[in-house]
Amino acid sequence: MRTFIAIELPQEIKKHIASIQEKLRPCDADVKWVEPDNIHLTLKFLGEIDENKVAAISETMEGLANQRSHFVVSITSLGAFPKIDSPRVIWLGIEKGAAETQGLAAGLEEKLKKLGISKEERPFSSHITIGRTRSARNIRKLAEALKTESQYLGAKGLLFETGRITLYKSTLTPKGPVYQALKEADLKTT
User: Fold this and answer.
1) What pLDDT, in 10s, does the model give residues 68-113?
2) Does the annotation count 16 as an active-site position?
């Protein structure tokens, strides 16, 4: 089964993100937007795993979550990989909470390596993917809109408190991925 570990976003934040996506749609760029209900902050993509590893992964998540406290996340920027002028992956950047999400991701990498799960080659970046371009259609127009909207978002910012990490199963369908929470691990309260 295809799996990943992520931080779930509150519905109110997902609604704000959906409104950002709506402001970018008029560019008519060829973008596959992430469905608002599927938007999350990925800590570790596990890929295909055997079902018999779910219990060990859940235990690992619990152990790590018990060592980390709730924290606040602020979404303050809008950008793209590899760069904003040639967007392939459109993302929202994290400011407050970036160190905590990086710490969780690093902890998961180290602990899951012991279960035979490959370590990610690229350094972790605290971000929330909201869309992926499929072609170069209207890419310049999209890049300009990203810059404009990012300035607005930076002034406003979106805040939420996170208190858990979740192991998800991802089933790919013709209509897009369907996510199912398999296990939640609560972070400790201070």
Assistant:
1) 999 999 999 999 999 999 999 999 999 999 999 999 999 999 999 9
2) no
Which tokens belong to 1?
């089964």
40 is catalytic: yes
CA distance 51 to 43: 20
Q: Which of 14, 16, 111, 127 is catalytic?
A: 127
pLDDT in tens, 6-35: 999 999 999 999 999 999 999 999 999 999
The three-state DSSP-derived secondary structure of 126-137 is CEEEEEEECCCC
- CA-CA distance, 71 to 100, in Å (whole number)? 7
Active-site choice (14, 16, 40, 169): 40
Total number of residues shown for the chain: 190
d(Cα 136, Cα 173) in Å, to the nearest integer?
Answer: 25
CA dihedral over 35, 181, 170, 79, signed as positive or negative: positive
Calpha distance 170→178 (Å, rounded): 6
Domain boundaries, the chain: 2-186
Q: What's this model's pTM, rounded to 2 decimal places?
A: 0.93
Give the fold, CATH level 3, of 2-186: Cyclic Phosphodiesterase; Chain: A, (3.90.1140)
3-class SS string, 60-126: HHHHHHCCCECEEEEEEEEEEEEECCEEEEEEEEECCCHHHHHHHHHHHHHHHHCCCCCCCCCCCCC
